[in-house]
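Thread: 6-O-phosphono-beta-D-fructofuranose complex, take 2
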Amino acid sequence: MMAPVDPTTTKSWARLATLHQDLKPDLRDWFATDPGRATELTFAAGDLYVDLSKNLINADILAALIDLAGEVGLAERTAAMFAGDHINVTEDRAVLHTALRAPEGTRLEVDGTDVIAQVHQTLGKVYAFADKVRDGSWVGATGKRITTVVNIGIGGSDLGPVMAYEALLPYVQEGLELRFISNIDPADSYETTKDLDPETTLFIVASKTFGTLETLTNARLARSWLLQGLQDSGAISGDEAASSSAVAKHFVAVSTALDKVADFGIDPENAFGFWDWVGGRYSVDSAIGTSLAVAIGPERFSSFLAGFHTMDEHFRSTDFEANVPVLMGLLNIWYNNFFGAQTHAVLPYAQYLHRFAAYLQQLTMESNGKGVRYDGSPVTTDTGEVFWGEPGTNGQHAFYQLIHQGTRLIPADFITVANPAHPLVDKDADVHELFLANFFAQTAALAFGKSADEVRAEGTEESVVSARVFTGNRPTTSIMAPELSPSVLGQLIALYEHITFVQGVVWGIDSFDQWGVELGKKLAQEVTPAVGGDAEALKQQDASTQALITYYLEHRNR
Ligand code: F6P
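Output below.
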């Protein structure tokens, strides 16, 4: 495998530094003097219409960014990823989430096995299960059909399914509901199950490793809740056989560690596998999406996967000059490394996408929050900006002030769709039009601002003119699609997966490991006895931690 190229040593990096130094951002002027700007900087990727024209770029900057992609070997790294090379170096694994959505019949051999055939075999099993739950032929311990499916997982085994379920609510079968338990805070388990009927509830324990403390604890809590509930109502006796038969009917699992699933007491027949070449945060399109497949049905889940594949093909085969994930990834490099931007806002004008930013936080920050490159050497630039966001228009009334007039540059992606799932009318106004007017107004205000003269012309008192000036030149990307269908959602997710990859390649990092979350997990295990009152274990802690635990022990009411 080629060693990472230090991007800062490339010719294009030096060129970008000069271009940045000489740049006088003036989107008003750039639009006024170049009538073709919007058209030239708008691109299509699948069903997505992506307008990059309100970014702080010109033809020279774009050309230098594209040269940078060439100099760091983006094409070679992309080919290596799609081919199944072990580009996840620190875990010595292939990175093949793209194989999860490859059409049936295509082949990809990795270490002598056709992984796409395996993918479709598992999908067949997931779809057969989903159909049974949906048509009522899968019944619980008392013969009742399942009405609530609770996904128990955390991180990639939760965020993808919950985000996609919320996004695709209009496609969910009536009479079926998904819920999610992720946090080890007992409040999560309690609140999620408190009004459920054990007879009609099915749990999906989703964990790639099946070793995650939070998930296994919550799975055990769920098992106790189920058995207690069924016994209390007299539905089952308390004996071992009745309990395991109830667990078999109310628990399925998704994991790469099927042996551990069996140890937990879930019948391997009711387990759906996946592979170590699927990263947790890239797994919503694997069997980890089983809860979603149940909710929206196999046909729509297939179309969700087809959406991912459309974006994969765009990414794999489009020249960098018109390749949306490449261009958006390079723009992030531009803002991160040349403007010093530390955060990136994602602002969906689509209430159904209200968990999209949370989902992207794991995807982007667990992937690119790294300080060493994939050969172990230190990075030579800043990496991994903070992704955040909330749906518009709510964000407008909360934090947009800082984006419009604050001192920091915050590049923002605005995402919306032309057709709402549920059009509503208020008086004579189509409410979706009111909503979209905000989307268009915000991106224009951020780009073009409002000058002091314009403020004065409104008759504003001189003493408050400066407070009412908007500098403009605040970069945004606008992404539109016809509607938020399963396919469009798949396209959007894959778009951000590939943006993340492009940035990781420029920085020379392994975007597919996550060693940074391991230390905290290990320490939590070491601290647990001290929290339980073990004086010796308490002594092993530092003074601050000892005092915090002591406070807890003194204040806990038992
Ligand atoms: O938090 C770290 C992490 O390993 C994530 O990468 C992963 O998505 C999550 O934990 C859950 O892991 P698992 O699916 O193995 O339970």
